[in-house]
Design goal:
Layout: E1 2-3, H1 8-14, E2 22-23, H2 25-34, H3 46-54, H4 65-74, H5 80-83, H6 87-97, H7 100-120, H8 129-138
């Protein structure tokens, strides 16, 4: 659990959504991602930068022309601007259902480290079983017969 008072930007963003004083890392990741466009990177202290990095959030994807184009193709339920709040979701969607050219362009653009990060932080429903296995093997995260279980929803 993350104590919000230790991270001023997170605390500010979270106050709009919850009265909780502590959140799990998944909730923190969601709050940072949805508030990404509102955050001034210059205001972020060292401890909060470390937390953001540990959560796998990349600042360089905030205003990205390729991701915006891919969002308009693969994230049909949101506008590209809305989708850009969670670039990891765009990347996961392309990894899951993208055509060969788009997948190659994405992989070259963001690199395997970002693809690995998206895969290891994926939420339930982001990948089909086939894509889950393929990307774990393709990115060297597991051997063919040793792919970890897919993320699942948990009721608290």
């Amino acid at each position: 659990m993350v104590r919000l008072s230790d991270y001023p930007i997170l605390e500010e963003l979270a106050q709009r959504r919850t009265k909780a004083k502590r959140l799990d890392r998944r909730a923190c990741r969601y709050i940072y991602q949805t508030g990404l466009s509102e955050i001034d990177p210059a205001r972020i202290g060292a401890a909060e930068r470390q937390l953001i990095a540990e959560l796998g959030i990349s600042w360089r994807m905030r205003d990205d022309a390729l991701l915006r184009r891919l969002a308009s193709t693969y994230i049909g339920w949101k506008t590209p601007d809305e989708a850009m709040a969670t670039p990891e979701r765009i990347i996961a969607q392309v990894m899951d259902i993208g055509d060969y050219e788009d997948i190659q362009a994405l992989a070259e653009h963001v690199g395997n480290d970002v693809l690995r990060d998206v895969l290891t932080h994926a939420e339930a429903g982001w990948f089909s079983e086939r894509s889950w296995h393929y990307w774990h093997y393709r990115l060297g995260l597991s051997k063919l017969e040793q792919v970890p279980p897919m993320p699942s929803r948990q009721m608290d």
